[in-house]
Amino acid sequence: MRLLVDANVPGAEACFGPLGELVRMPGREIDAAALRDVDALVIRSITRLDAATLDAARAKGSRLRFVGTCTIGTDHVDQAALARHGIAFASAPGCNAEAVVDYVLGCLLTLAERQGWRLGERRVGIVGVGNVGGRLLARLSAMDVACLACDPPRAEVEGHEGFRELETLIGECDVLCLHTPLVRDGPHATHHLLDARRIAELAPGTLLLNAGRGDCIDGQALRQRLSGQGDISAVLDVWEGEPGIDPALRDLAQIATPHIAGHSLDGKLRGTHQIYAALCRHLGLPARLGLDELLPVPPVTRIALDDGLEAEEALRLCLRAVYDVRRDHDSLRRESYRLGMAKGFDACRANYPLRRELSTLFLELGPKAQALAPWLQGAGLNVI
């Protein structure tokens, strides 16, 4: 069996090497010609598998029978076209959800420090309460941060209790976090969910954060609001037109990162392992390799704190010991100026440095810091 795996999928040799001949290729270079002699394909979100690509691959004699994406999102894959060609499909739901929540908390605490406000005094609206949004809601609620949730597909199935309309969140929340998949059609379409009208309705002082899909926001309308009135803030990890994103919007965002919110090593390896397990099931083989065997020891495992820090300061310190979002903001600006936008964007992703999740850190609190324990545990720390 011949397996083609995106060059940026970690742990591929350990997981897929024993199953057959392993070939690595940059994700953006995977096309119909590359699929000709491939039995199984393992990708990430930058590889687009549409009907035209799959039809062309089949016309070239492709024997592809399995596609796995090591990501939560699946909008880059035409699943109907896969089914038409008899190709099995698997994704990795939830694999990097904790990393995205770490990213969001890091951004919120960074902006709070930069702009002079406190997270505990804000009301956060979460749009899309799935794998990521649900975890974000749970952590913020455990930290006593006021939250409102909007998820029309879930509300339709589960009932409307606990869910609010998007207009309510726009009108009542200081922070708006988008964690929706990209759905282009139907009653719950999310393409340009934040369109020009809704962006205009955002109250002055609102912070808009998008770590879902870039096309869920009308980038041109957001750029006009930021450059015109300049009375709201934006944190953007996902963008329209990736990797050739709008440089003006990059410069206007308070934090601008190259689609890396979920790029923890833990999340990536979790995604790899989920697809490895799915491929083993497809082949009728046991999955002999465990996730724990893939994960290395974290570089920072323990921090001790005593008196002198308030809760938000303590959490900011711990988060930055594991992951400092400012590094990724600076990296995108530096590499996009050095290499050009598209190449710089992809270079940041391809050369992404080691990053672990907040849950890998153990926090020892001294006697005078014990009062911080419930709040920091709620944020996701292992408090000793």
TrEMBL record:
- Domain D-isomer specific 2-hydroxyacid dehydrogenase NAD-binding, by residue range, is 114-261
- Where does this protein act, in terms of pathway? Cofactor biosynthesis; pyridoxine 5'-phosphate biosynthesis; pyridoxine 5'-phosphate from D-erythrose 4-phosphate: step 2/5
InterPro entries according to UniProt: D-isomer_2-hydroxyacid_DH, D-isomer_DH_NAD-bd, Erythronate-4-P_DHase, Erythronate-4-P_DHase_dimer, NAD(P)-bd_dom_sf, PdxB_dimer_sf
Keywords on record: Cytoplasm, NAD, Oxidoreductase, Pyridoxine biosynthesis
EC number per UniProt = 1.1.1.290
Q: Which NCBIfam families match?
A: PRK00257.1
The family this protein is said to belong to: Belongs to the D-isomer specific 2-hydroxyacid dehydrogenase family. PdxB subfamily.
What is the protein name given in its UniProt record? Erythronate-4-phosphate dehydrogenase
Species for this entry: Billgrantia zhangzhouensis
* Encoding gene per record: pdxB
